[in-house]
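Before the break, one more example. Copy the sequence into your notebook; we will annotate it together after we see the structure.
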Amino acid sequence: MRERGALSRSPSTGVGAAMLWIMRYRLFGRTGLRVSELLLGTMTLRSEDVARRVLDVYADAGGNFLDTASAYGESEEVLGAAMRRRDRFVVATKYTLSRDERDPNASGNHRKNLVLSLERSLRRLRTDYVDVLWVHLWDRHTPAEETMRALDDVVRAGKVLYVGVSDAPAWFVARANTLAEWRDWTAFSGLQVPYNLLRRDVERELLPMAAGMGLTVAAWAPLAAGKLSGGTERAGQLSQAEETAAWAVRSVAEELGATPAQVALAWVRLSGALPLVGARTPEQVADCLGEVGLPPEAVARLEAAAPFERGFPADFIAECEASPFAFGEAVIRA
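Here is what the structure looks like once it is written out:
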């Protein structure tokens, strides 16, 4: 499904010649909620004035997904103050991380922390509901049954519309959603993971699990904390492997008339994941808005510069599927 949002840009944005960004939208998991292909992380926002300008650039381009967290503190309050059209946005926050390190029940995925963290986020965001509530981090001490039932309760109460999970093992996400389906509770619709050209380990289990269960993937750190965006402040701070990958991104960007950030984000989108970008300024948002088509040769060069092996069982299964020994001589195209 596609809808359109446009942003006309000029050289004053620092991203080259004027171009038209056509924002596309995806359904959020197996729901009818439409979310833009570029998600905006708001953790680094500290000034209400700057936050409003950042949101204006993003919204004018058609962006609609704002991501924050209870643990982000001041930035969650800044976002609440800066939003002028709250219902126009899909507002997402997270809970799990500690609200008070001296209180043993002020963290975790149990019901008490969920309720108190959510209430605090609602106050900070100046709203009576959030569109998405993410479990911020897997908590090995809280049973999946408790977490999923508690999440379902806040959905039924109208304080949360959809739920997702961040930074958790694939087996836990699969088990939690299976429990939810069996018991008619609200299941996770989204998965949030770190994913970029330098960090591809989620391709082993998490991305295939998300695809199999119909979860939208939000990729945080898609620019590898600035290592792939060509920032000069990173000079001398990269390892040899990181510099090789960053050079490949810059090289492809120059050939395509794009910026390194646009190329790095385009690579993430090839997997079907939605980049979750953090921006401190309107210019940084604008830099991420250019649409770049990566030719197969460019993709091969980028991935050759950052070699990765999926390991067992993914590579072993792929080898078996390519051999008639496993499934016979018939070729199955799925």
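Residues 6-305 form a domain with the TIM Barrel fold (CATH 3.20.20.100). DSSP finds twelve helices and twelve strands in the chain. Try to locate both features in your own notes.
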